[in-house]
Amino acid sequence: MQKVIGQSVLVGMCLIGLSACQNTQHAIKTAQIRYAALTPNAEATVKIFCSGTNTCEFERIGNVPVVSDTTHLVSNEAIQKGFVRLKASSTLQSNALYLTVPAQQYEVVVRFYPISIDRAETIHVIHPFKANKAYTFTMYRDRVKRANNLLNAAVPDPLCVKVMEEKRVVRRFCKPYNVLTGLGEFVEQKN
To answer: Quick one: which of 14, 113, 124, 130 has the most CB atoms within 10 Å?
Structure first.
């Protein structure tokens, strides 16, 4: 009888512990990423970060999905390949992930959330990543001086993404606001 009560208490405490977590799936993914990080990569690797907004996520690198746009969970394939690393204590925190991949050319798809988690700005960049370098995709608003009339003042500043290799900007993309459609595409700017 005491054994049954003891087991019931233990199961109850485990359930309370699990319900105390904000999101069990995120806790599981965090543990999986930490475990995958323990296996060293023999190849020359590249670190890829994103910053500039409260939240940014890597949608995919090459053909490997990284973070789902609907669930915001890290894919098992990216974890198993050892591409995903934590720079925060949990995947629930903003900008908690970065990538570690073998050096080569990839298409990287990054989702930035400049206003809210409901509206993503997505950029696709094909870039040759060099070994033993760190790259950062940073979103910012390009504050432009304009003529002081009401129409020009009403147009939002363009969103831009700079790709930095270590501390040096190697590429820059801007998305100008189109007055007719309200939409725009990221276009590479010449430095």
So the answer is: 113
SS3 5: helix
Q: What is the 3-state secondary structure (H, E, C) of 116-135?
A: CCCCCEEEEEEEECCCCCEE
pTM of the model: 0.75
Q: Are 191 and 172 in contact (CB under 8 A)?
A: yes
Q: Quickly count: other Cβ atoms within 10 Å of residue 68's Cβ.
A: 12
Residue 112 near residue 139 (C-beta atoms within 8 A): yes
DSSP alpha helix (H) spans, the chain? 2-20, 24-37, 76-80, 150-154
Burial 6-26 (b: 16+ CB within 10 A, else e): eeeeeeeeeeeeeeeeeeeeb
Rounded to whole angstroms, the Cα distance separating 82 from 120 reads 26
**What's the CA gap between 83 and 2, in Å, rounded?**
48
When divided into structural domains, the chain yields a total of 1
| Domain residue limits at 116 | 2-189
Q: Tens of pLDDT along 116-145?
A: 888 889 999 999 999 999 999 999 988 766
Q: Can you tell me the distance from the alpha carbon of 136 to that of 118, in angstroms, rounded to the nearest whole number?
A: 23
Please spell the DSSP secondary structure of 68-86, one letter per residue.
-TTT-PBPHHHHHTT-EEE
